[in-house]
Amino acid sequence: MATPKPRQVLSRRSRPAKSPLSQEAIVSTALDLLSREGMAGLSLRKVAAVLDTGAASLYVYVANLDELHALVLDRVLGEVVTPAGRDGDWRYRLKAALRSYSEALYARPGLAQVALSTIPSGPNMVELTESLLALLEQGGVEPGRAAWAVDLLLLHTSAFAAERDNRRGGDEVALRRAQEALGSVSPDEHPHIHALGAELFSGEQSRYDWGLDVLINGVLSTPRP
Amino acid sequence: MATPKPRQVLSRRSRPAKSPLSQEAIVSTALDLLSREGMAGLSLRKVAAVLDTGAASLYVYVANLDELHALVLDRVLGEVVTPAGRDGDWRYRLKAALRSYSEALYARPGLAQVALSTIPSGPNMVELTESLLALLEQGGVEPGRAAWAVDLLLLHTSAFAAERDNRRGGDEVALRRAQEALGSVSPDEHPHIHALGAELFSGEQSRYDWGLDVLINGVLSTPRP
DNA sequence: ACCTGAACACCGTTCAAGT
DNA sequence: ACCTGAACACCGTTCAAGT
Q1: Residue A210: which of B130, B159, B222 has the nearest Cβ?
Q2: Cα A162 to Cα A155: distance, rounded to the nearest angstrom
């Protein structure tokens, strides 16, 4: 998979002259801002400011903000590691690949949301899709079913990363409110919720692992219509 | 409802007296704007304009935009229908409830995204959770597993609605680009994708139905760790 | 071809002043 | 307690003018 250029943005002061703009530089800067400040930090104006221009200049290299989002996402997907090997524990390798995808998204606050609102077409997404298809084939899943399964697995993993992101993302007011709403429910009207109590909020990592197993077991036992 | 009224101070008598602000009125107006214009139409300023005030006035009834999002979401969730009945085909009823949830979201462009970025705590979400727990119990799923399963099912359904929404939502450029990227892949480097061809984009409704079956089958066959 | 500043049409949120 | 206009600190995108 493509190696993401480290391209540390050296302080502009030490740089002799303004480096010319390029899509590469724009995406790198955007990713840098995203990693440090989350989605709030990723704006065309801020990217432009770091690159020492006005936002209008970026439109030569990037059609609009959506395209920049897609480019940043694909760049991050270059980090995803899909374990090699053709035999043995395909299931373990599949889960490892998806966990790698999940972590790549989760490391940039808000990027999971981008993954869920973008129709991806970059080379790294193509690469990842190919790898997942190969892994499912190793697991004996026929091609048509595997095509749908890849979609399902990526969608699920993105959504899970987005949810984790939400819960981290500061809105502790909302989280507390949700816990109270479910915790203070009347046993008569909502017996099941009442009986579960804190159980409804248990498990973080194990919940994700379980979710992946649910999906994989489900795919293996559910033929396409 | 409401074309924004001209600010001109025509005699107050010529139009119905301004109804007092309330959270109820704000949420209704917001939902109305959302249904007609999508997420782009849902802003505090626009809601205020329809209600013939300034945005600042809304802050008496609503803490911020995120809270308004949560309130609108829960209001929509009031539409979700969960089939009654305690015996017979719980699986059919579970799928019907989730499809109802999905349709409620999908009917408002962008709302699925809100569902994925909000920690819900409204009464209708509590109701839905209770109903889904009951349905899973009828299916013989033990409580702890059911708690995780409800989360998984709702997350999946929201994500699926969001994806459908993206694909409808106008960005046909991105969709075409994605189809081209996957369609023009070299058979040597990406044999699996190449072999699948258009299959990667097939099925809309049937794909969702299959996804639900995958999830349900997976839940039934995957105990909690 | 590329870059730029300014402008346009928006945002959410805060605040002092009014009632 | 509620409402308001104005202000603050932002947005993405377009465009005429420059190189």
Answers
A1: B222
A2: 11
Question: Residue B156 and residue A156: Cβ atoms within 8 Å?
Answer: yes
Is the C-beta atom of B45 closer than 7 angstroms to strand C?
Answer: yes
Contact call for residues A138 and A82 (beta carbons, < 8 A): no
d(CA A153, CA B34): 30
Q: How far is CA B154 from CA B81, B111, B115, in A?
A: 14, 14, 9
Could you tell me the two tokens for B220? 């039934």
* pTM, two decimal places: 0.90
- Least confident range from A186-190, B2-6, B153-157, B203-207: namely B2-6
Q: Does residue B59 approach strand C to less than 7 Å at its CB? A: yes
Contact (Cβ atoms closer than 8 angstroms) between residue B111 and residue A169: no
B39 touches B72 (CB < 8 A): no
> Distance between CA B37 and CA B33 in Å, rounded?
6
Q: Which of A144, A206, A204, A220 is nearest to B207 (CA)?
A: A144
Q: Is the pLDDT of residue A4 over 60?
A: no
Q: Is B225 exposed, middle or buried (0-12, 13-18, 19+ CB in 10 A)?
A: exposed
Q: Where are the alpha helices (DSSP H) in A14-142?
A: 23-37, 44-50, 65-77, 90-106, 111-116, 123-138
pLDDT tens digits, residue range A148-172? 999 999 999 999 999 999 988 667 7
- For residue A83, give the nearest of A68, A101, A108 by alpha carbon: A101
